[in-house]
Design brief:
This protein is α+β, with helices and mostly antiparallel strands. Helices cover about 40% and strands about 15% of the residues.
């Protein structure tokens, strides 16, 4: 697949088949995450891979945004000690870095035939307690992973002519 087809094909999948995901695929997805851009190369991320079905069920109880029964989860966390290196912008840069890592992971998952969904609706304190996450690390995003029971249709997108401004706001380029 070429990159544009991967970008256009990735969907938020919330319904998964009861089919295991290989550890090799999961490691490849995590590796894609560490190659995301990072402000000042601080790499403030910590990733927690969950592939234990019992633990996933417990996490579902803390996560109203987690639909279906994925075969794996990645909890993307910000290491606050690392993000402090960026000064006042540390927190916002860390969230951007995590977001770019998440996008890399979801694109890699799609290229491997896996569905994914980013999830921000979960009880962070409950998750920290359940997973024994240290005080200086904050979970900020979760990605569910598994083989999709179906690929959702792509949602409509605003046209480039509407969202692109050329050399100043309100000046739309012609095609």
């Amino acid at each position: 697949m070429d990159l544009m087809n991967i970008i256009k094909g990735r969907r938020s999948v919330r319904s998964f088949l009861d089919k295991e995901v290989s550890r090799e695929h999961l490691i490849t997805i995590l590796e894609a995450g560490i190659w995301a851009p990072s402000g000042s190369n601080i790499q403030p991320w910590e990733f927690i891979l969950i592939d234990d079905a019992t633990l996933i069920k417990k996490i579902k109880l803390l996560s109203p945004g987690l639909y279906g029964f994925p075969k794996a989860l990645v909890i993307l966390c910000v290491n606050k000690k690392k993000s402090e290196k960026a000064g006042r912008q540390g927190e916002s840069l860390a969230v951007m870095d995590i977001s770019m890592a998440a996008q890399n992971m979801m694109l890699m998952a799609y290229s491997l035939g896996l569905g994914s969904c980013p999830i921000a609706s979960f009880n962070k304190l409950g998750l920290k307690h359940l997973l024994n996450i240290s005080e200086e690390v904050d979970p900020v995003l979760m990605i569910s992973l598994g083989y999709p029971s179906e690929w959702p249709s792509p949602p409509a997108r605003r046209p480039l002519e509407e969202v692109v401004h050329l050399n100043g706001y309100g000046k739309h380029p012609g095609r």
